[in-house]
Amino acid sequence: KLSVQMFKSTFVPQYLTVSDRKFKDILSKAVPDGHKIYEWLDSAEKLKSTRQLTHTFNMMYYFKLQQELWKDYFDLSMTEGIWAPRVLKSEAKQHYTCVSYGRSEKLVEQRQKTIQHQMNRTNHELQQQLI
Questions:
Q1: What is the DSSP string of the chain?
Q2: pLDDT exceeds 90 at position 122
Q3: What is the pLDDT of residue 74?
């Protein structure tokens, strides 16, 4: 059985947990003129802010991916008319199933709003970090 700590650590991006040297190595391979990273990141403060900035960019890309996924759910469900039907609780219990299958229109719209809020908040964080 996985502990909560192990579960959480499984989903932490590698660049947040590796040593400073390894972080510089990873970053140097990911950007143009990467060999200059070692000169630029010459203090603990610069490394910390670069890790924070890297994480914020990563979260923006993650939320963008989520936004596209949920938009596809919405578009497919609208064009195909395949919204999840609701089932009476008594029928769900009788057939050992849940009250709904798939995704309801309301759930998809709520998720889209949540993701947009997360993107706005992360974009604001990004702007603050770049000041």
A1: ---HHHHHHHTS-HHHHS-HHHHHHHHHHHSTTGGGHHHH--SHHHHHHHHHHHHHHHHHHHHHHHHHHHHHHHHHHHHHT-PPPB--HHHHHHTT--SB-S--HHHHHHHHHHHHHHHHHHHHHHHHHH-
A2: yes
A3: 85
β partners of residue 127: none
Which residue do the tokens 């610069």 mark? 46
Nearest to 27 by CA among 42, 44, 15, 43: 15
Task: State which amino acid sits at residue 85.
Answer: P
pTM (2 d.p.): 0.71
Determine if residue 33 is left, alpha or beta; phi over 0 gives left, psi from -120 to 50 gives alpha, anything else beta. left
pLDDT tens digits along 9-59: 567 788 888 999 999 999 999 889 999 999 999 999 999 999 999 999 999
Let me know: does 98 contact 92? Beta carbons within 8 Å: yes
Quick one: what percent of the chain has pLDDT higher than 90?
48
